[in-house]
Amino acid sequence: VESPQLHCILNSNNVACSFAVGAGFLAFLTCLAFLVLDTQETHVAGTRFRTAFQLLDFVLADIPGLLGFPGPPKR
């Protein structure tokens, strides 16, 4: 029998679940912002802004993925 109440699967730790939901929401908003900026990239004239935009895109998209690649440390 399942409860109609939400249940956190991260060791029943509500803080961990709240963090995961918050991180996912921020990632979604960042994705939307970069989607809008990508569509307007041809209208951006300043090379400094374009370089900063590409660097920020790299940091927010690639670095977290590379950090998670090796996996958690073994105990």
From TrEMBL:
The keyword Transmembrane applies. GO terms for cellular component: neuromuscular junction; synaptic vesicle membrane. Signal peptide: none annotated. Keywords: Membrane, Transmembrane, Transmembrane helix. The chain crosses the membrane at residues 19-37. It comes from Saimiri boliviensis boliviensis (Bolivian squirrel monkey). PANTHER family: SYNAPTOGYRIN, SYNAPTOGYRIN-4. InterPro entries: Synaptogyrin (IPR016579). This is Synaptogyrin 4.
